[in-house]
Amino acid sequence: MNVVDPSVVCGERVEIGHFTVIEANVKIGNDVKIGHRVTIHEGTVIGDGVTIADGAVLGKPPKPAKTSTVKLSGELPPLVIGDHCTIGANAVIYRGATIGAYTLIADLASVRENVHIGQYVIVGRGVCVENHVRIGDRTKIQSNSYITAYTTLEDHVFIAPCVTTTNDNYMGRTEERFAKIKGATVKRGARVGGGAILLPGVTVAEETFVAAGALVTKDTEPKTVVKGFPARFSKMVDERELL
Fold first, then answer.
1. Helix, strand, coil percentages in the chain from 3-state DSSP, rounded to 5
2. Helix (H) or strand (E) holding 3
3. Which residue, 68, 177, 198, 207, is the most exposed by fewest CB within 10 angstroms?
4. Domain ranges across the chain
5. 128 membership: H or E segment, kind and range
6. Model confidence over 155-174: pLDDT tens digits?
């Protein structure tokens, strides 16, 4: 049995699995496939040709803890999912996010509020994208990476599995930290290897190659390979690898 609010606007050729809940004022485009036990919260907008796998939760209203660093301010707009996206099983996407066309949000991924994701993006299995993040077109984030709040990933960025980004040099202590929280900025075409760590506020320059396991503590130069703990210049990126 499904629970679909009478105000829901459905396009043509929409398929809905069993035990799915669709709340008020949701808009669903044409040729959408919705799996079993999916929850779509109030006002969510879903484009044409979207596939939503079993157990996904879309448009979830955020409810931060009283001690959370990032606070809510004002009413969030509805979640918007662009045309021909794929949403994996048990993925959770919050209200206030925008997902561009042809993007994959894989199984068990989490995308928080105030996040903008471009077109043709891959957010891999188990990836966590925190709030106030911007992700450009054709960027790929591989499984189990953590994209902290106030991070920017520009177009054509590659984030390998298990990468960690950070944004708080004070690690939750002192009131001063609130004014200085800042995630990394990863510029167009940069690549970050598996298990690398980006410290708060660093800029990974255009076409930088960060080696696996590196600790990036300061800004990099364009088209350079950096590696080590902490990361240091190793060589220039081979021109054959540049965009």
1. 5, 30, 65
2. strand 3-4
3. 68
4. 1-61+76-119, 130-238
5. strand 128-129
6. 999 999 999 999 998 887 87
- pLDDT of 43-56, one tens digit each? 999 999 999 999 99
Cβ-count burial 39-70 (b if 16+ within 10 Å, e if not): bbbbbbbbbbbbbbbbbbbbbbeeeeeeeeeb
Written out in words, the top-level CATH class of the domain with range 130-238 is mainly beta
Amino acid in the structure at residue 86: T
Sole residue written with tokens 């561009």: 100
* Paired strand residues for 170: none
Domain 1-61+76-119 sits in which CATH superfamily? Hexapeptide repeat proteins (2.160.10.10)
Burial of 9 by CB count in 10 Å (0-12 exposed, 13-18 middle, 19+ buried)?
exposed
The reply to whether 130-238 shares the fold of 1-61+76-119 is yes
pLDDT band for position 217 (50/70/90)? very high
Q: Which amino acid makes up residue 47? A: G
Other CB atoms within 10 A of residue 15 CB: 10
Q: Which pair of tokens denotes residue 36?
A: 């079993």
- State yes or no: pLDDT of 121 exceeds 80: yes
